[in-house]
Design a protein that fits this description.
Elements lengths: L12 E7 L6 E3 L6 E3 L10 E10 L10 E6 L15 E6 L7 E4 L17 E6 L4 E3 L5 E4 L11 E9 L9 E11 L12 E7 L7 E6 L11 E6 L7 E5 L5 E6 L10 E10 L13 E11 L6 E2 L3 E7 L7 E4 L2 E2 L8 E5 L9 E3 L5 E4 L10 E10 L6 E11 L7 E2 L5 E4 L7 E8 L11 E4 L1 H4 L4 E5 L4 E6 L11 E9 L7 E13 L5 E3 L13 H33 L64 H16 L49 H9 L9
Parallel strand pairs: 6-12, 13-19, 21-28, 30-36
Antiparallel strand pairs: 1-4, 2-3, 4-5, 7-10, 8-11, 9-10, 11-12, 14-17, 15-18, 16-17, 18-19, 20-23, 22-26, 24-27, 25-26, 27-28, 29-31, 31-34, 32-35, 33-34, 35-36, 36-37
Pfam families: CADH_Y-type_LIR (PF01049), Cadherin (PF00028)
Function: Cadherins are calcium-dependent cell adhesion proteins. They preferentially interact with themselves in a homophilic manner in connecting cells; cadherins may thus contribute to the sorting of heterogeneous cell types.
Subcellular location: Cell membrane
């Protein structure tokens, strides 16, 4: 209630209210100043309100007093129960824990005012879960209440927790939550075999490494506490078997470590021990965490393939051994009770297997072809043995045949040597060390010997020093060598081996004489001309050679020009077929010089036209020109001309063109009369020029001139 001292109760004062919640939560009577709550209040929603009040004159609307502020607090009542904000809870505790072992702490929250009364005072209690667990009423800590709780008996527990305010008194509000508690496993149980003896039956044909049976020990623990390790206790038959643990099933898997043989032993007995891998020292007093069981294995008889006496057979044979020679044998037998016979044959895989044959009954191996160690030094093939009673049961063995060497190749120098000796070499100087190689397979300790051939032993140039370690040295025997006297020396060396029969060969070493300095370093091995002066330098030699080459070039050019000039002289006028004038540019020696030329070559009283056929073309029809007999019969000149004509006809080197060679006497009174062709014919009928048309296009104009125009002797000048 609000009241102003200026209020006389006559209705002249008006009260107003403003601030937090004015008009919505609280209202005021303007006349009396009474403040009322117009709706329910919740302390948990808003614990206090700040308001402002003022007294105002009704008439003037002016405040009568300054505005005053006041606070309205909401008084708490117990209207909220405790709540577990994190529930429901999940917790775990190891099994076999002692009483009072900590499990979990729960917490309930009450929204009431903890400073006013007992509305927010919470007390915890267990409604469900006794007598296994207990809870502290004030702190809410849950602990174990019973000792030795066993997970293998009961693993899951559900505990119902209650939180009540008002200190747990009557009328207080309460809230509950659930706590799910799991007992975690500890290794408190040893593994145990469900039975003391395990019986297994195993075929004798089982492969090594294969699983032949499983046994299992039971451990009620969980996880790594239930992991079991199996071991075979040393004793009878345990060395033939091995045992491992299956990580998924924790079973002991028995595996075969060695082959079984029913005929050798029919049963095996051994013990297997199962133990935990992860032990807990708190439970050692319970007893040993392991158990033992007996395993009996009965071997079942199976029809087995034959068994060879050896895992691998190795044989030796000399190369070039005659075909059909027995080099060894293989043996296999049937170990079963029936003891069947065995047959042998070669496992053919390639052509190499055809070099040998095997006796199907006895198992003896013989050569089928001639062997050559240099071609193949070792043969590797397989022999298969099968039972006669059951051919499908087979066994295989490898056979290795080493081909022994027969000494058939002589030793030779291992590599070609380039040997040189200095001109200033001293006697006894080693200029080359040589080694030998043999194509034969050299046995251990084989030695090669070196020596000079008999024909070289007497020459005082070089010698061979055998070091007796399969090497030899070439030594000088002279004091200096001369390249001018002899540049190359050929030294025959005989090399022998130590095998039987002894093989030897003669190898020739080529030794070159070289120029060296005083330290023996080779400077040059080139050959110098022995006819040159000793002091002639290399530059002088090059100059001399260049001069000789220039002179040879000049001579060749001069000869070529002379031949070209003679050829041009003969071909001066190729188009003029009437006369070829031969030019002689040489000046004669006068009338008294009778040796300059043969005058008989000019003697020609008349041209005898016996056969004027072109040699550069082939005419369709051969026509021979007419000729008239000479005015005077001169037998010696006719014979001379006919001889020359025959020589030109049969001469294969004659030029392929027509050439008119004239022979005449010089001076007046020649019996050959005029050599001109103008007066050779008196009438047109005396000469037929039709054959000119057959000489080709180059004579077309001449053929037209003489073939179409009529001959008029009066026009001849």
């Amino acid at each position: 209630k609000l009241h102003s001292d200026l209020d006389k109760g006559v209705g002249t004062v008006k009260y107003t209210l403003s601030g937090d919640g004015a008009g919505t939560v609280f209202t005021i009577d303007e006349t009396t100043g009474d403040i009322h709550a117009i709706r329910s209040l919740d302390r948990e929603e808003k614990p206090f309100y700040t308001l402002r009040a003022q007294a105002v004159d009704v008439d003037t609307k002016k405040p009568l007093e300054p505005e005053s502020e006041f606070i309205i607090k909401v008084q708490d009542i117990n209207d909220n129960e405790p709540k577990f904000l994190d529930g429901p809870y999940v917790a775990s505790v190891p099994e076999m824990s002692p009483v009072g072992a900590y499990v979990l702490q729960v917490k309930a929250t009450d929204a009431d005012d903890p400073t006013y009364g007992n509305s927010a005072r919470v007390v915890y209690s267990i409604l469900q879960g006794q007598p296994y667990f207990s809870i502290d009423p004030k702190t809410g800590v849950i602990r174990t209440a019973l000792p030795n709780m066993d997970r293998e008996v009961k693993e899951q527990y559900q505990v119902l927790i209650q939180a009540k305010d008002m200190g747990g008194q009557l009328g207080g509000l309460a809230g509950t939550t659930t706590v799910n508690i799991t007992l975690t496993d500890v290794n408190d149980n040893p593994p145990r075999f469900p039975k003391s003896i395990f019986h297994l039956k195993v075929p004798e044909s089982s492969h090594v490494g294969s699983a032949i049976g499983r046994i299992r020990a039971v451990d009620p623990d969980f996880g790594k506490n239930a992991e079991i390790e199996y071991n075979i206790v040393p004793g009878d038959g345990g060395n033939l078997f091995d045992i491992t643990t299956d990580e998924n099933t924790q079973e002991g898997v028995i595996k075969l470590k060695k082959p079984l043989d029913f005929e050798t032993k029919k049963a095996y007995t051994f013990k297997v021990e199962a133990s935990n891998l992860h032990l807990d020292h708190r439970f050692h007093s319970v007893g040993p965490f392991k158990d033992t069981a007996t395993v009996k294995i009965n071997v079942l008889d199976m029809d087995e393939p034959p068994v060879f006496s050896k895992p691998v057979y190795t044989m030796e044979v000399y190369e070039d051994t005659p075909v059909g020679t027995i080099i060894g044998a293989v043996t296999a037998q049937d170990l079963d009770a029936g003891s069947s016979s065995v047959r042998y044959f070669i496992d053919w895989k390639n052509d190499v297997d055809s070099y040998f044959t095997i006796d199907a009954t006895e198992g003896t191996i013989a050569t089928n072809e001639l062997l050559d160690r240099e071609s193949t030094a070792q043969y590797n093939f397989s022999i298969i043995a099968s039972k006669v009673s059951n051919p499908l049961l087979t066994n295989k063995v490898n056979v290795i045949v080493n081909v022994l060497d027969v000494n058939e190749f002589p030793p030779e120098i291992s590599v070609p040597y380039e040997t040189s000796v200095c001109e200033n070499a001293k006697p006894g100087q080693v200029i080359q060390t040589i080694t030998a190689a043999d194509k034969d397979l050299s046995p251990a300790g084989q030695r090669f010997s070196f020596k000079l051939s008999p024909e070289a032993s007497n020459k005082p140039n070089f010698t061979v020093h055998d070091y007796r370690n399969n090497t030899a040295g070439i030594e000088t025997r002279r004091n200096g060598y001369s390249r001018r006297q002899q540049e190359l020396y050929f030294l025959p060396v005989i090399i022998e081996d130590s095998s039987y029969p002894v093989q030897s060969s003669t190898n020739t070493l080529t030794i070159r004489v070289c120029k060296c300095d005083s330290d023996g370093t080779i400077q040059s091995c080139n050959v110098e001309a022995i006819f040159l002066p000793v002091g002639l330098s290399t530059g002088a030699l090059i100059a001399i050679l260049l001069c000789i080459i220039i002179l040879l070039v000049i001579v060749v050019l001069y000869v070529a020009l002379r031949r070209q000039k003679k050829k041009d002289t003969l071909m001066t006028s190729k188009e003029d077929i009437r006369d070829n004038v031969i030019h002689y540019d040489d000046e004669g020696g006068g009338e008294e010089d009778t040796q300059a030329f043969d005058i008989g070559a000019l003697r020609n009283p008349k041209v005898i036209e016996d056969n004027k056929i072109r040699r550069d073309i082939k005419p369709d029809t051969l026509r021979f020109p007419r000729h008239r007999p000479p005015a005077e019969d001169n037998t010696d000149i006719r014979d001379f001309i006919n001889q020359r004509l025959q020589e030109n006809d049969i001469d294969p080197s004659a030029p392929p063109y027509d050439s008119l060679a004239t022979y005449a006497y010089e001076g007046n009174g020649s019996v050959a009369e005029s050599l001109s062709s103008i007066d050779s014919l008196t009438t047109e009928a005396d000469q037929d020029y039709d054959y000119l048309s057959d000489w080709g296009p180059r004579f077309k104009i001449l053929a037209d001139m003489f073939g179409e125009e009529s001959y008029n002797p009066d026009k001849v000048t």
